[in-house]
Amino acid sequence: MEKKQFKAESKRLLELMINSIYTHREIFLRELISNSSDAIDKIYYKALTDDSLTFNKDDYYIKIASDKENRLLKIYDTGIGMTKEELENNLGVIASSGSLKFKEENEIKDGHDIIGQFGVGFYSAFLVADTVTVISKAFGSDKAYKWESKGVDGYTIEECEKNYVGTEIILKIKENTEDENFDKYLEEYMLRSIIKKYSDFIRYPIKMDVTTKKLKEGSKEEYEDYIEEETINSMVPIWKKNKQELTKEDYENFYAEKHYGFDKPIKHIHLSVDGMIRYNAILFIPEKTPFDFYTKEYEKGLELYSSGVMIMEKCSDLLPDYFGFVKGIVDSEDLSLNISREILQHDRQLKLIAKNIKNKIKNELKNILKNEREKYEEFYKSFGRQLKYGVYSDFGSNKEVLQDLLMFYSSKEKKMVTLDEYVSRMPEDQKYIYYAAGESIERIEKLPQTELVLDKGYEILYFTDDIDEFAIRMLMNYKGKEFKSVSSGDIGIDIDENENSSSVDEQENKELFEYMKETLSDKVKVVRASKRLKNHPVCLSNEGDITIEMEKILNSMPNSQGIKADKVLEININHDVFKSLKNAYENDKEKFKLYTDLLYNQALLIEGLTISDPVEFTNNICKIMK
Ligand SMILES: Nc1ncnc2c1ncn2[C@@H]1O[C@H](COP(=O)(O)OP(=O)(O)OP(=O)(O)O)[C@@H](O)[C@H]1O
């Protein structure tokens, strides 16, 4: 028998193919199954135009059979088959796609979209096989042919016997090597899992003989192996089904089957878009944070299918980081894929889908916030932080999308509120949106700095996440109202009745404060009489952009550069403690220094900052207790 050579370019391409196009060997099965599915589709199209042919769906299937003893893996189909010429043209010339030609010649309707287009997928068989044999009988022909190849060497074609129309691909699976276990491609569990992973939604049944254990006839405890033909794939993907026919449980089951999470999703979004780009998608908003969600290890992304075939397990381009918690799948026939089907060649379509999806998620979250407040608060507990990261990152470019989805705890309502709710009930004379940052709600509630703002009857938002202040800085304002920390030097509240007296006090105590500042040296920028304190003797505030809370966060990060807030030590001159301080200033400078140190350290403790010498601090307390 004459051995034919692959064309020169084809030879090089074949080597390239086998070694570099595909990153996972297991995709060979996806490629061969897709070819079989295409071959059946072609019969389906023939039947549309040929009255003598009726397409009875039950007659069309793909079958996978493994023969471990002889290391053979067979893939049969009852598709259109290939003539001798087609075997030569399609399998003898790499990068020649009979399927693409067929698509061009026939009008493709009904979403029966043929998968093949590059004319290379078939050769992925050599990723796992030494020899590939194809036995095929074409529709309308009475002769069958056998094509065989051991890879780059070339191939042979000869006539052979075959009873039914269709194609049989026989792979002689490679022997194991040190690095690679090829035996697994003959194992039932492996084949099943590859089929499920990539080809679950191929429209035709993919059958396999599976071994199950069954009670022996007449016995109550003895089992025997029993072989049964099973259809492995689910065929119709849930996202192609009619929404009206699906129940909440159907979506929840799909979520569980796909291992999207152990929780139940709080919402699903089922999309069938038929516009500039066609796609189907099912998206889930989970309820609970995956254990690794806020770590580097977490990979965001949606599963991407093209015409029912899985292309990518996690397509990260489909989701912005701030919606990285969303799970689900997207299936589109309109994607331009590259040869390996692994990377998308032109991402224009993908970008369009991503944009669309982003808007859908945003709107759905807004709906939940509006109509199912409790549910939204649950969601926000898990993923609110991610939304705030979204506001902060990319130089705030996504703040418009996200600002209405934010919530903070309110001093007034004692629950989470939105910025819109806050602004809508601001009294007319209130200029700013006030916030207080701290470790927890309980701690913030005790902060002396909140006293004046609360006394004015203004609402304060509590920032307990480390990202909060940073996100708000990016946001700058909401509906024209600026944000203001209750600890900032200028709090923006006019205290008319005390205005004059406090500046008199300031003047009167000028030297005392200067001496305090001297004692504390560069630990504080200035010491002054407080306008905001009512019941507490002392507190810290800041001047400039960096607040004390921000200083804490920045310094807890690796490679922190020791950034410091410009701290102001504020003293309540109406407090009894101040009288003692003044007394000490006039009569006992040593005592005055001791009091200054104690007051400063108290202010640090109130802020949740560490004091540099706790032993000295306790010794100082002991001194005054004596
Ligand atoms: N099981 C089959 N039945 C009938 N024709 C087949 C079969 N397998 C392959 N072919 C023919 O061989 C051609 C080449 O197959 P190959 O898998 O290399 O490329 P493709 O499917 O066209 O494109 P892609 O590289 O995108 O998968 C196909 O276009 C098809 O015409």
UniProtKB/TrEMBL annotation:
<dbReference type="InterPro" id="IPR037196">
    <property type="entry name" value="HSP90_C"/>
</dbReference>
<keyword id="KW-0143">Chaperone</keyword>
<feature type="binding site">
    <location>
        <begin position="97"/>
        <end position="98"/>
    </location>
    <ligand>
        <name>ATP</name>
    </ligand>
</feature>
<dbReference type="Pfam" id="PF13589">
    <property type="entry name" value="HATPase_c_3"/>
</dbReference>
<keyword id="KW-0963">Cytoplasm</keyword>
<dbReference type="GO" id="GO:0005524">
    <property type="term" value="F:ATP binding"/>
</dbReference>
<dbReference type="InterPro" id="IPR020568">
    <property type="entry name" value="Ribosomal_Su5_D2-typ_SF"/>
</dbReference>
<dbReference type="GO" id="GO:0005737">
    <property type="term" value="C:cytoplasm"/>
</dbReference>
<comment type="subunit">
    <text>Homodimer.</text>
</comment>
<feature type="binding site">
    <location>
        <position position="90"/>
    </location>
    <ligand>
        <name>ATP</name>
    </ligand>
</feature>
<feature type="region of interest" description="A; substrate-binding">
    <location>
        <begin position="1"/>
        <end position="341"/>
    </location>
</feature>
<protein>
    <recommendedName>
        <fullName>Chaperone protein HtpG</fullName>
    </recommendedName>
</protein>
<dbReference type="InterPro" id="IPR019805">
    <property type="entry name" value="Heat_shock_protein_90_CS"/>
</dbReference>
<keyword id="KW-0547">Nucleotide-binding</keyword>
<feature type="binding site">
    <location>
        <position position="31"/>
    </location>
    <ligand>
        <name>ATP</name>
    </ligand>
</feature>
<dbReference type="Pfam" id="PF00183">
    <property type="entry name" value="HSP90"/>
</dbReference>
<feature type="region of interest" description="C">
    <location>
        <begin position="553"/>
        <end position="626"/>
    </location>
</feature>
<dbReference type="InterPro" id="IPR001404">
    <property type="entry name" value="Hsp90_fam"/>
</dbReference>
<dbReference type="InterPro" id="IPR020575">
    <property type="entry name" value="Hsp90_N"/>
</dbReference>
<dbReference type="InterPro" id="IPR036890">
    <property type="entry name" value="HATPase_C_sf"/>
</dbReference>
<keyword id="KW-0067">ATP-binding</keyword>
<feature type="binding site">
    <location>
        <position position="82"/>
    </location>
    <ligand>
        <name>ATP</name>
    </ligand>
</feature>
<keyword id="KW-0175">Coiled coil</keyword>
<feature type="binding site">
    <location>
        <position position="35"/>
    </location>
    <ligand>
        <name>ATP</name>
    </ligand>
</feature>
<comment type="similarity">
    <text>Belongs to the heat shock protein 90 family.</text>
</comment>
<feature type="binding site">
    <location>
        <position position="77"/>
    </location>
    <ligand>
        <name>ATP</name>
    </ligand>
</feature>
<feature type="binding site">
    <location>
        <begin position="117"/>
        <end position="122"/>
    </location>
    <ligand>
        <name>ATP</name>
    </ligand>
</feature>
<keyword id="KW-0346">Stress response</keyword>
<feature type="binding site">
    <location>
        <position position="167"/>
    </location>
    <ligand>
        <name>ATP</name>
    </ligand>
</feature>
<feature type="coiled-coil region">
    <location>
        <begin position="354"/>
        <end position="382"/>
    </location>
</feature>
<comment type="function">
    <text>Molecular chaperone. Has ATPase activity.</text>
</comment>
<dbReference type="GO" id="GO:0140662">
    <property type="term" value="F:ATP-dependent protein folding chaperone"/>
</dbReference>
<dbReference type="GO" id="GO:0051082">
    <property type="term" value="F:unfolded protein binding"/>
</dbReference>
<dbReference type="GO" id="GO:0016887">
    <property type="term" value="F:ATP hydrolysis activity"/>
</dbReference>
<feature type="binding site">
    <location>
        <position position="341"/>
    </location>
    <ligand>
        <name>ATP</name>
    </ligand>
</feature>
